[in-house]
Structure formats: C-alpha cells, structure tokens
Design a protein that fits this description.
Layout (H helix, E strand, L loop, with lengths): L2 H6 L8 E5 L2 E5 L4 H20 L5 E4 L3 E2 L8 E2 L3 E4 L13 E8 L4 H11 L7 E6 L5 E5 L11 E3 L4 E4 L4 E4 L11
Parallel strand pairs: 7-8
Antiparallel strand pairs: 1-2, 3-6, 4-5, 6-7, 8-9, 9-10, 11-12
Length: about 180
C-alpha cells in the first residue's frame, strides 16, 4: 500500500488505528491511562510554552509523519509532533516536523523504537523524545550539527529536565507525569 492509498483507505471497519510501515498496515493498540495522561500533559506543557514565547511552532497530537526513507510507503504515527510550518488546508501529514515524541509502553516498545530510528530519516527533524509510561524516565535523541544522530540516546531520570533545544522548551521531567500513579 502507498501513502496515498493509506490516506484514502476507509479503515477495516473495526475502529482500530493503523500506521503504514514499509507498505504494510501496522495496527496500533490503545495506550494505558498513564500513557494517555502523559501524552496530554506533555502536549499541554509544550503548547503553553510555545504560545508564551510567541513561537510560530505548534504541537499536534498523533500526527502522521512521512519518513525520508521509502517515503511513498511509510506514514508513521508518533504520539506528539511539533512543526514550525504554518497550518494549511488539506495537510494530512505533519509538514517539516522538528520534534517528535513517543510515549513508550512495554507492549509496543519494539514498534516504537522501529519508528524512532525511521524518524531519523526526516530531514527537518531535530529531536526525538521517548518518554516512558511505566516509570519517570525519558530518552532523548538530538541531531548533531553535522546532521548525524547519536547511536545511544541521552538518558533523563526522575530528577532530570526534559530540554528540547530546537523549540526552546524545558520542564522538569516529573511535570509530564502529574496526575498519574507515577507522580
């Protein structure tokens, strides 16, 4: 299946969500309550920071992103994405993402990391954060000035700060876990 066919596909009739991986449909399971809470809280924190700074960037929940590798047959769906490209009619994929965020659940860890490494092929992308849903922990990949990506993510623990330099955002990692059993 191509991205164009995927975007026109009416679904399988079950209400399940899918992403397109190398031309194949990959079902996406619903996240846990903590997963959803972390996603919404982090999205709100980033949105408020962007707005307060007067940034042209915006955050989008569950955007479709097209990878730089095999772009015709890959549309991955991260939990959150930030773009600085203005919204325009007809956009069905997030244009020029600069930050992508995945909330990691044990049940989808392999697929999540597969997506993370696929995201590194997106030319506009500067940072990828993987925020855990079962413990207060995150992993951050930041593109180097030479365009390369580190082989090992930076680890952020419960007392650390999540810094997304490309959008001038920083918050204590714990803030993303407010109102969850992990707070």
């Amino acid at each position: 299946m191509t991205v164009a066919e995927f975007l026109d596909w009416p679904g399988d009739g079950t209400g399940r969500r899918f992403e397109l991986v190398d031309g194949e449909l990959r079902p996406m399971s619903p996240g846990s309550r903590a997963h959803g809470s972390i996603k919404m809280r982090l999205g709100r924190l980033i949105d408020e920071a962007l707005e307060a700074a007067g940034s042209p960037c915006s955050i989008v929940s569950t955007p479709g992103v097209i990878t730089g590798w095999r772009a015709q047959i890959n549309m991955r769906i991260p939990d959150l994405g930030v773009t600085c490209t203005p919204d325009a009619p007809g956009q069905r994929a997030l244009p020029d993402p600069v930050v992508l965020i995945e909330i990691l659940s044990p049940s989808n860890a392999v697929d999540t990391w597969d997506n993370v490494w696929a995201y590194t092929t997106i030319p506009s992308l500067r940072e990828i954060a993987v925020v855990h849903s079962t413990q207060v922990q995150a992993e951050l990949l930041r593109r180097a000035t030479d365009g390369g990506w580190p082989a090992v993510p930076e680890q952020i623990d419960a007392v650390g700060t999540l810094c997304l330099e490309s959008i001038t955002f920083a918050c204590p990692l714990r803030a993303a876990y407010a109102q969850t059993h992990l707070s």
